[in-house]
Amino acid sequence: MEAQIESLRAEALAAITAARTAPDLAAVRLKYLGRTGAIPLLSEGMRDVPKEAKASVGKALNALRAEVTSALEAGDRALASAADEASLAEVDLTLPGIAPLRGSIHPLTQLLDRAVRIFRRMGFALADGPDIETEWHCFDALNTPPHHPARNELDTFYLPDGRLLRTHTSTVQIRTMEGQPPPVRIIAPGAAYRRDEVDATHLAQFTQMEGLYVAEAVSVAELKGTLEFFFQELFGTGTDIRFRPHFFPFTEPSFEIDIRTAALGERWMELAGCGMVDPAVFEAMCDRRRDRVYDPETVTGFAFGFGLDRLAMNLTGVPDIRMLVENDLRFLRQF
Ligand code: DAH
Q: Which of 257, 252, 256 is nearest to 282 (CA)?
């Protein structure tokens, strides 16, 4: 019996070494380890082994089975890695790869990021408020009485519950002062909504950037200096800036700001509204807060606001404002 075990061992290992393919190896496995294979068959001979020898013959049979099994496994692994190598032989590592698709930052977001960075350097913090607003935050608190044309149903998206989609980001001035005492120095970029007929220069949803600075003795000079610095940083030092008297309900005096610069084609462009916060706005805040920290006798402030979409359009030479929101990759990939 031991001689048989030894010769079966030699034969099986030789067959495993000789197998060149996975089916070859499977056939060897079947031949030696299958249910009616050589090793199980030999094990049946255990019956006739004398009692004293059973232990050592059994041990030798187990060793044979284990050795053949592990040789088969090693054979499987060797064949698999040879197959891997063969398939890699056809791969040309010097070929250029497939470049991953890379997104780009939307031109409006690029402009917004630049604007935010400039104001942050001047100590302005980011603030925000809800797009769905109360009439009070959008109009009353901003000294805009019920008969004012801005409140017209034809200009504003009213919700059935009386709230509305904010028509400007000036609401964030109010939200901020409600939540904190002066000094306040914030910018608030965000969406604004108007019932405008959508065309090449109008969107019903657009992007504005609001600013507010309230402290003791804030002056028109600071308003001018801050916005001049901002626009010079944004467009370059050769930029001309002019302030024209204007009217806004929530500022007094109020101005419109025009810019003339190479990047915008050297013609005057009206870009922003601004002014000194109207005392009526501070009074509304005192009523609301039930304190006098925004007493117009002790604090003053300036505010400003401008739209970013048309600015982005002019800076990038985009002919139609709708392109900014259509998400056409052929357009967006250019930036
Ligand atoms: N809210 C104004 C608008 O949407 C823009 C504006 C003007 C904002 C003057 C201000 C400001 O803060 O002081 O047309």
A: 252
The pTM of this model reads 0.73
Where the chain has pLDDT below 70, the residues are none
Residue 170 C-alpha to ligand 1 middle, in angstroms? Answer: 6
Whether the CB-CB separation of 306 and 112 falls below 8 Å is answered with: no
**What is the predicted pLDDT for the residue at 149?**
87
Take atom 7 of ligand 1 and give the residue whose Cα is closest.
273
Whole-number Å distance between alpha carbons of 88 and 117: 50
d(CA 26, CA 34): 10
pLDDT tens digits, 22-57: 888 889 999 999 989 888 888 888 888 888 888 888
Instruction: Output the ligand 1 site: residues, CB below 6 A.
Output: 168, 170, 210, 248, 251, 273-275, 303-305
Any residues with CB less than 8 A from the CB of 269 and at least 6 apart, and which?
258, 259, 260, 314
- For ligand 1, what atom is nearest to the CA of residue 208? 4
Q: Which atom of ligand 1 is nearest to the CA of 192?
A: 4
The SS3 call for residue 28 is helix
d(CA 72, CA 287): 88
Measured CA to CA, the distance from residue 264 to residue 286 in angstroms comes to 42
Q: From the CA of 307, give the closest atom in ligand 1.
A: 4
Note the pLDDT of residue 247. 96
Closest CA to 250 of 215, 283, 297: 283
Residue range 107-332, CATH number: 3.30.930.10
**Calculated CA dihedral for residues 153, 156, 158, 164, nearest 10 degrees:** -140
Which strands, in side-by-side order, build the sheet including 205-215? 125-126, 184-193, 205-215, 300-307, 269-277, 251-260, 240-248
Dihedral sign for Cα atoms in the order 202, 143, 179, 305: positive
Calculate how far, in angstroms, residue 123's C-alpha sits from the geometric centre of ligand 1: 21
Per domain, the residue ranges of the chain are 2-88, 107-332
